[in-house]
Amino acid sequence: MISSYLLLFTVAFGAATLLPFYSEILLVSQLREGLHPGWLWLAATTGNTLGAGVNWWMGAKLVQYADRRWFPARKADIQRAQNWFTRYGQWTLLMSWMPIGGDALTVVGGMMKVPAPAFFILVGIGKGVRYALVIIGLAAF
User: Dihedrals φ, ψ of 102, to 5°?
Assistant: First the structure.
């Protein structure tokens, strides 16, 4: 049974990075198998938040290579993202749960040097609420 929670943790971790994983599908499947919703929520939220930490780290460390030809983003795109983040602030990390753009927010959070404690608290809240809504939504049906 612990392996089921570890599997969800791992898939949620991967889903928070740029890998094409979908943790909600596994979460719903495991809920339907009768696994404990609280433990599933904890595994998914923790894995997804720590996976977002990989993006934060990449943003903080790899932005120094933005002028290289092989870098995947153009300087203009990076500047636009930084300007947007400066305008709306680190509170935007609460939106990191979004399927489109959420991963990019965590990378920009690293580029903008958001301190780790603030990053993990804000991202953890956003991702925790998302998984809670999935669990509550499934319980309603």
Answer: -65, -45
Side chain identity, residue 30: Q
For 69, the domain range is 2-140
Distance separating alpha carbons of residues 120 and 16, to the nearest angstrom: 13
How many domains does the chain contain in total?
A: 1
Contacts of 95 (CB under 8 A, 6+ apart): 101, 102, 105, 126
**Confidence (pTM):** 0.91
Q: How confident is the model at residue 34 (pLDDT cuts 50, 70, 90)?
A: very high
